[in-house]
Automatic annotation (TrEMBL):
Top EC class for this record: transferase
Protein name (record): Squalene synthase
Keywords from the named record: Lipid biosynthesis, Lipid metabolism, Membrane, Steroid biosynthesis, Steroid metabolism, Sterol biosynthesis, Sterol metabolism, Transferase, Transmembrane, Transmembrane helix
Function: Catalyzes the condensation of 2 farnesyl pyrophosphate (FPP) moieties to form squalene.
GO MF annotation: an example: D-glucose transmembrane transporter activity
InterPro entries tied to this protein: Isoprenoid_synthase_dom_sf, Squ/phyt_synthse, Squal_synth-like, Squalene/phytoene_synthase_CS, Trans_IPPS_euk-type, Trans_IPPS_HH
Native species: Colletotrichum phormii
Length: 416
């Protein structure tokens, strides 16, 4: 929005402006970047981070100093990889080796890439990728190894799907294939971040053993994006909703966007939301095991926004006509709530899943399954509330009361 449209919007929605002001006035960053101590390349990396994702940049910049630069560089590396994968103008014979060998470019001082089409959003990041490589090479070897491993996994996964699309099979067919795609483009990010958190001493060591939890953290966010962006992806000739789901409701994927098929389309979208909600319980369990406030905020805020977006998309015909998103005011409210503690984040999850249940249509074939999912999430949350005292998360970690209760969920590191 421009200044004029912003002013008009907030004049008509003063409560949204109040929520933003509340965040500005009440929020104190857990950690502050010390810009004057940063190298020229580090400053440039943060400038790229801000350009590629303002919302993500906000939470990254408040991370614990130990993880500030590693997470920033990790994100930019994967964004560079994604920029190559997204560019349909790059032929497979060039794209496939770029994706598979991207990890090796991280060791190549001065490497850049100018082969993206001019209109590609993050083209400039790759044009100046030598800046990112310089900061990557400056970080601890253990962090380099983690990031390089995830880059390798993601690059090969993207290359596999690019080859599949080039052979004429551009869509996702089964739910298992849907999960695999989401794993390659987002789940592996959860794996890498978890290893970084644990290596930095800011997450429970046992998190690494519970791959289902960090997998769900990534898949929940990616599935949310895929549901929300269905119209935009369709217009770009891309289809990520699995045939196994949409074929129950329409004969052809294009039929979802025809007004005469609206009820079928809404039932299909509710099944997609149901699939995404299957990760919510794992996400809460993951958040239990984060030791430090800035890391907790970094993980909790996107998950809360994803839950709000799922509720917005649920049985909403607008998703088949345009890209929908939560309001700025709602986003800031979620940031306020989700930067407190697990108890508050759990309340956010339950609030939005309750709204989903309120919109649940008895005529929808997935009505009962959605109801079961709703009750299951509430049951988990009530179990958390019943078994642990109110959590107090600090810059050092959870309070001793809360920490000693974490073993109830089978995830706390054994001291022996």
């Amino acid at each position: 929005m421009g200044l004029a449209s912003d002013a008009l919007y907030f004049a008509l929605h003063p409560n949204q402006l109040l929520l933003i002001l509340q965040w500005r006035l009440r929020h104190g960053p857990v950690h502050q970047r010390i810009v004057e101590r940063e190298s020229v390349t580090a400053k440039a990396c943060f400038e790229f981070l801000h350009k590629t994702s303002r919302s993500f940049s906000r939470v990254v910049k408040e991370l614990h100093p130990e993880l500030l630069m590693p997470v920033c560089v990790f994100y930019l590396i994967l964004r560079g990889l994604d920029t190559i994968e997204d560019d349909t103008s790059i032929p497979l014979k060039e794209k496939e080796p770029l994706l598979r060998e991207f990890k090796d470019r991280l060791e190549q001082d001065g490497w850049t890439f100018i082969g993206n089409r001019p209109e590609e959003k993050d083209r400039q990041l790759l044009v100046q990728f030598d800046i990112v490589i310089a900061e990557f090479r400056n970080m601890k070897p253990v962090y380099q190894a983690i990031i390089k491993d995830i880059t390798n996994q993601m690059g090969n996964g993207m290359a596999d799907f690019a080859r599949k699309a080039d052979s004429g099979d551009a869509g996702v067919n089964t739910v298992a294939e849907f999960d695999l795609y989401c794993w390659y483009v987002a789940g592996v990010v959860g794996e890498g971040l978890t290893h970084l958190f644990v290596e930095a001493g800011l997450g429970e060591a046992n998190l690494i053993k519970h791959s289902q939890l960090y997998k769900s953290m990534g898949l929940a966010l990616q599935k949310n994006n895929i549901i929300r962006d269905v119209r935009e992806d369709h217009d770009d000739g891309r289809r990520f909703w699995p045939r196994e789901i949409w074929s129950k409701h329409v004969d052809n994927f294009e039929d979802l966007f025809k007004p005469e098929n609206l009820e079928c389309a809404l039932n299909c979208s509710s099944e997609m939301v149901l699939n995404a909600l299957g990760h919510a319980e794992d996400c809460l369990s993951y958040l239990v095991n984060l030791r430090e406030q800035s890391v907790f905020n970094f993980c909790a805020i996107p998950q809360s926004m994803a839950m709000a977006t799922l509720e917005l998309c649920f049985r909403n015909p607008d998703i088949f006509a345009k890209n929908v998103k939560i309001t700025k005011g709602d986003a800031f409210q979620l940031m306020v709530e989700s930067s407190q503690d697990l108890r508050k984040v759990g309340e956010v999850f339950c609030r939005y899943v309750h709204r989903i249940q309120q919109k649940n249509d008895p005529a929808d074939p997935n009505f009962l399954k959605i109801t079961v999912r709703f009750r299951s999430l509430l049951k988990l949350w009530h179990s958390i509330l019943a078994n642990v005292p109110g959590p107090r998360l600090t810059t050092r970690g959870w309070s001793s009361d809360w920490s000693s209760s974490m073993d109830r969920f089978g995830l706390r590191q054994d001291k022996h």
